[in-house]
Amino acid sequence: MTIFALLALLLTAAPAAASTRARHAAPDSVARREMAEFLMRHWVVKGGFFNRMPMTSYHLDLRRPGHFHRWNVSDVLEFDDKGAWDFRLVDDTSGVIAVDADRHFWFARRGDRLWFDGRLYEAVPRGAETVEEWTPAKAAADSMRDVLSRLTVHPWYRRDEFNLFMEPQRIDLHPDLTCDLVFRDGACRQRGRFSIDRGSLLFEVAGPGCDLRGGFNLFENRTVPFSFDGSQLLLSGAYYSGESVLGRRRAYLGLPHGPLALIVEYEGPLRAGRSQTLYLEFRNDGDHAVRLDSLRIAEQPLKPSHGGFVARGPEAVVTSKPYPAPEVAPGKSYRDALQVRLPLAGDEISMEFEWYSRGRGQTYHSRPFNLVRVR
Fold first, then answer.
1. What pTM was computed for the model?
2. What superfamily does domain 32-137 belong to in CATH?
3. Do the Cβ atoms of 105 and 93 come closer than 8 Å?
């Protein structure tokens, strides 16, 4: 090939390469425009009827400029929610819708239907809207860096050994609303999506599940309340922190009968046959004063059976104590420290905390089920 032929080839190839780059650079803006046109509709999950009574229908109305409205209705209006919204794409068919500063929803286009908030919506007719008038709402755009950034700053590690047969030890929440759940020191893992709806996380995680009772997938479509306590994340009351090596453990032993909840702290892992201090906090989460009467702690070895657990040995009482304690006012706590020696060890030990309390002329008996790992 002569030098002139080579120059001619390079001159003809350069515009073609630029054209190819332009074609590959365009899809981001084109995909966003097409998705905006797809999203800006009135979406419905129809409820139908049962025994001539209307069942709940779910409505989602997305309009410009950033007008978000969702409501649930049966024979009455059950739920009504509005805000400013924007979205960003993760790929050509899915992304994140952010509403104000406290809601982030993973969504996906599935043909002509929309997967949103754990439901598959269908569009219903309404007047056409054009994307040219789209104006992203500043509040919604800012919210992309608000709650989401705090939830995704680092992996979250559970701060106790309670109920690990069904609850993850480690949770990784990512900015694109994907998540990874790790159970029992990595013996089982699940991956999926999550959304943020004010004070709740909606998990949509693929199976098989990691529950020891038979592989149940508890996170297939599970809504979990969350909040922050300083630097710690609370999921349904359970404490998670960013520290992979835990010192003092902290366990919330709900759900109580009555307003008096119990939080237990202890140093290091639970171990059998040695003296260990349990730091107890009886916290009044209710609206009236209560009086603590007594506490009993017992262990029993269990084994999985037919979707549950059955005893594989007798119960062993750890300790019991009466409490002539003062009244605990709403929002206040009563604290105590017990020196105990756990008699049983194993991965599937029922550790039963049973407490009685009184308030408003009623006796409350709390006895939540908790399966623990005792070394």
1. 0.79
2. YedD-like protein (2.40.128.500)
3. no
